[in-house]
Amino acid sequence: MHQEYKSFETERLLIQVTTELDASFILELINTPKWYQYMGDYKVYTYNDVLKYIYEGITVPLKKHGFSDFTVVRKTDGVKLGTCGLYNREGIEGVDLGFAFLPQFEKQGYAFESTSKLKEIAFEYFKLDKINSITTVGNENAKKLINRLGFMYLNKIRLPKNHREYLLYQLV
């Protein structure tokens, strides 16, 4: 596997590996109503909870696979907008591209811009031959973005230890 990818840029965005320095932002993002609605309650309520989440859910996979979660930052003012990443999720064969943004930064093209770049990195830098993406049945905005990125719907799935039904998409 390649050495881990630390950061990359687009015209408007800096997309950098999520670290402890992003803890307050991640805590805010994970506790938004939309996160609860579409991804569930991760039981991350305190600063110590989020540090554990970053270590176990981001740092460990980054060291193992070379990729994980990235924080999306607006270049003009340094504001953290959301996250996007490549994940090896239990229950999905292959790598999954995921994303989440604070509600006030949705519908401004940031998710498409960052995930388009991440898709490019996945194929060109990490040499992946396919990428998956999942979303919950009712998340229409995520479905639109996944389709716009060129993913094709495969089927419905359930992940281990999770009661939700997901739509599985793939890009080859």
Helices and strands in order:
Layout: E1 7-9, E2 13-17, H1 23-30, H2 33-38, H3 47-65, E3 69-74, E4 80-87, E5 96-101, H4 110-124, E6 131-136, H5 140-148, E7 152-158, E8 165-171
Antiparallel strand pairs: 1-2, 2-3, 3-4, 4-5, 6-8, 7-8
Helix pairs in contact: 1-3
What count of structural domains? 1
Strand order of the largest sheet: 1-2-3-4-5
**Terminal Cα span:** 20 Å
According to DSSP, the number of beta strands is 8
Structural class: alpha+beta
Based on CA atoms alone, the radius of gyration comes out at 15 Å
The best one-word shape is globular
CATH topology (fold) name: Aminopeptidase
Number of helices: 5
The proportion of strand residues reads: 25-35%
In the CATH scheme, the class would be Alpha Beta
H/E element order:
EEHHHEEEHEHEE
